[in-house]
Automatic annotation (TrEMBL):
<protein>
    <recommendedName>
        <fullName>Peptidase MA-like domain-containing protein</fullName>
    </recommendedName>
</protein>
<dbReference type="Pfam" id="PF14559">
    <property type="entry name" value="TPR_19"/>
</dbReference>
<keyword id="KW-0802">TPR repeat</keyword>
<feature type="region of interest" description="Disordered">
    <location>
        <begin position="804"/>
        <end position="823"/>
    </location>
</feature>
<dbReference type="Pfam" id="PF13485">
    <property type="entry name" value="Peptidase_MA_2"/>
</dbReference>
<dbReference type="InterPro" id="IPR051012">
    <property type="entry name" value="CellSynth/LPSAsmb/PSIAsmb"/>
</dbReference>
<feature type="domain" description="Peptidase MA-like">
    <location>
        <begin position="392"/>
        <end position="566"/>
    </location>
</feature>
<dbReference type="InterPro" id="IPR011990">
    <property type="entry name" value="TPR-like_helical_dom_sf"/>
</dbReference>
<keyword id="KW-0677">Repeat</keyword>
<dbReference type="InterPro" id="IPR039568">
    <property type="entry name" value="Peptidase_MA-like_dom"/>
</dbReference>
<dbReference type="InterPro" id="IPR019734">
    <property type="entry name" value="TPR_rpt"/>
</dbReference>
Amino acid sequence: MFRTGEYAKCIEVAATEIAGGRTFIDWYVLKTESELTLGRYADAAKTIDDAKKIAPTNLRLLWLERDVLRFNGQSKEAKEVLAQLGGQLERTSGIYRDLETSIVIGKFFLEIGADPKRIRIDLYKPIQQRAPGLPNGYIAAAELALSKNDYALAAEDFQVALKVDETNPRVLYGLARSFEPSDSEKAEAYLQEALKINPNLIPGLLMVAESHLSAERYDETEKLLGKVLEINPHEPNAWAIRAVLAHLASDNDREKECREKALAHWKDNPEVDYLIGKHLARKYRFAEAAAAQRQALQFDSDYLPAKMELSNDLLRLGKEEQGWKLAEEVFEADNYNVVAHNLSTLQEHMAKFRTLESDGFIVRMDAQEAAIYGDRVLELLREAKNVLCEKYDIELNEPIAIEIFPKQQDFAIRTFGLPGGAGFLGVCFGNVITMNSPASQGENPSNWEAVLWHEFCHVVTLNKTHNKMPRWLSEGISVYEETLRDPSWGQSISPAYREMILGDDLTPVSKLSGAFLSPPSSQHLMFAYYESALVVEFLVDQFGIEALRSILDELGKGLQINDAIARHAAPLDVVDAGFQKFIHDRAMAFAPDADFSSEDLPAPRVDELQAWLEDHPNSFPGLQQYAAALIREKKYTEALKPIDKLLELAPDYAGDGSPLAMKAQILKELGETQQELAVLEQLAELRADAIEVYQRLAEVHADAGRWDAVVVNARRIRAVNPLIQEPYLLLAKAGEQLDDGPVAIEGLSTLSSLDPYDPADIHFRLALRLHETEQDEKALRHVLLALEEAPRYRDALQLLLTLTEKRAPEPDQPSPAKDDTER
């Protein structure tokens, strides 16, 4: 009955058994736990009192009594019981313990700060060995791992427990928690199975409510909380989440009321404010979240979950000294805490970073990378600040921190607290941006300049709204602004997106944040970004940029997004209908004469595809496969026919299977350089990360002496991968050919930091250009570096003479007096 959520019936049966003289301790435990679950705290206290008359020193009862006292407003007495339990344990050490009592002992030692790893090894592992067919030993170890954010280890133990107890809702719920960060689909399946067995499983219902809260499905959140409170009208975590809902609705009185109800029975329960703060942080309300965690720590200064969350909140607010200090404190108190351990390791790595400061920006990055492209980072940030702050009418008064990580794992730990986060290129918390550097992205890095512009746009919109905006709007504006800055940035329509728009994958504007929470695939997540950007484009096109600014202003005042849109654009149903037509028209305008159906496509062989296309001449996937098959067989001239047909259908498509890319490849093979150049230029305008295209363009333009075009493509290469020598070699050569000192210096100065093949030559050429632009102090440094590499370098020696003669005092000029010199 307890396992299936029939708590009231469980109490009745247990009471009957106890009244009948069956005083087996489990009857009292079951009855007490059921009464606590239903919020019958006074009844639970009486049950414990009755049980202690029979077994006054039973450790399981003492451990349970602690919770009973807490929920009856007796926190001081609860602490005394903990001391009593410790004393009893000391007096009876060495006595054989049953398995359940041994688990309680482990929980006690965890509570008083013992090493969690030793508890796992010395207490829980022996329990598992003594009773391999019972689940509780595995559950205890798994819940310990889960409390330390060791999700993989928790999943292992829960899965063993599931093998010996397949219908245990506690195990299924634990598996849902364990897989939640890494596999949302599997987590959902386990959670639903748990709730199927026990529809009144309060932690499971709260987990569902929290997922609705994250997806901004606030009505569904409230329904789940209502169901929980029907089971236990006093459930503190349900009231805590209601307080979060009230906060998000800017209802201060309701928020205060809900928090007071959460603390009505256990008045100094630190979990209440910890939970409130955790969910506010997920909504990017980091200042309010930090305040909640500080309140939790006032109730219990040793409550490590709150201290860990506060550390993360402070780091995300840019208050690094305080944040790192708290992380160290947590790690010292609990070196099994995975997040604290990760942050401690990360801090050691970041201590080696170099800091660049300019115009209110503080950039921290790997020292070598800072020397290579740190100046470009600052240059782009200054441009973004000038453009976007003016456009959105916002002044940034606090420093903006940007942290760029050469290791993806370090980025993930700084951003999420745990390794993972594959697919994230950058994250903005408000005044703090974290980013992966190109070094962390393997052989095919993304355009880091586009990522930086995107994330800084978040800084602008989050500051304007005081972090009170839905994710879809924040992401939508950032992608929209990417595209305005450079049409090759952002996203564009594709056959896959066209199908999603015209199919069942379009999300209503009012529910767009949910599209980011648990997308079925990475393509669905990217489509959520694309759709959100089109919503912003639609709002600006239909109602003007002033309307968008006004919506952001209203969000900052606490108005909900749907109300803000209705007030400054149109009623939401009108917006939904208008946007649906807008995006539908966009989809239909993409290759309107093409047939995108992939049904009945034959095998990708030339003869079969050729015959099939006679009856399906406008088949987009058919033409793509036919052209690719011909290229594989090196039938380049023949391949041009289906490619030109594809270009007729979709002239600006540059995504997967792009006819432009195929045509450029063929023209190169055929030696048609001028035609190839035209196609490559079109591709370069459409693709933000097509480094091979930029490299080929630079090569062709250099051969033809078009050095201005070489500069353009060198900078395109740098925007994708600034860590290779190629773009700087191109800039140096182009600058020298154009007699453009700044461009040559731009290339040569970076090359000097990249371990060039001939460092003496690079330093000399740089010194020469610096001298020509009247930067003689810098020129002297580099000519000396050239001579350090090659002491007999005659041209460098001559330049050194020139520079030193210029520095020497004139012969007829008297030397300064001694006093003048000293002054």
